Amino acid sequence: MANLGLQLYTVRDHLEKDFEGTLRKVAELGYKGVEFAGYYGRTPAQVSEILKETGLTVIGAHTSYDRLRNALEEEIAFNKAIGNRYLIFPFLAEDERDRWPEVIEDLKAIGKRCAAAGLGLLYHNHEFELTETLDGQPVLDAIYERVAPELLQVELDSCWVTYAGFDPLAYIAKYSGRIPLLHLKDIVKKEDGSAETVELGRGIVDIKAIADAAAADGVQWIIVEQDYCAGDSLDSIAVSMEWIKGYVQEGGKINV
């Protein structure tokens, strides 16, 4: 059974104002773990203290490409101190997407150092890794083909796979056993073809089928994320939690 977490980027506006209070609210809503995207000036001791108080598990940390390249030892030390097992490559800026072979070599080197320190490195996708190609295949597949599983695992963002026009269920099957973490989010498409993330159950993504497949495959954590919230972000994650609870009542295999 998969555990349920939240990518804290979703509630970044609240974290900026009240880091500890926001984590308390996340726990009160029923989320079991959190994936960090910054620590808002807190020390490892302060982060560990609020995690202990709330009972939240640290799932992973989205860590910028710059920090992974230039401050990896600091990131490893910080994350080991708070009990985190996974560093996650979150996003590649558009002006760097013409150098995928170099990025892949960097992932190998970063993955080796993480493995030596007892941490796992994961890659989190958006749509462009699927719509862009490298040597005739989607970049995402090229990355996972060229970097060994022991150096790089998968954090599949199922929503962006859907938006890119690919089948997230096929990707869960393709990388079975290599996906410890999966992002569950929903979107609506605008008239101009762009996407806007919405609360679970309010968009076009087949999130039930994705959650079913992820749980069946042994994914450790299903992580709710909403890149943009039209209203209050805490209200949004509460709405998404209600969808999760309804899904569980219908037999969904998520621990809430």
TrEMBL record:
Gene Ontology MF terms in the entry: isomerase activity
**UniProt entry keywords in alphabetical sequence:** Isomerase
Q: Can the keyword Isomerase be found in this entry's annotation?
A: yes
Q: Does the keyword Isomerase apply?
A: yes
Which Pfam families does the protein's record reference? Answer: AP_endonuc_2
**Which residues are in the Xylose isomerase-like TIM barrel domain?**
23-245
Checking InterPro entries in the record gives: IolE/XylAMocC-like, Xyl_isomerase-like_sf, Xyl_isomerase-like_TIM-brl
The entry's protein name is: Sugar phosphate isomerase
Q: Which organism is it from?
A: Paenibacillus woosongensis
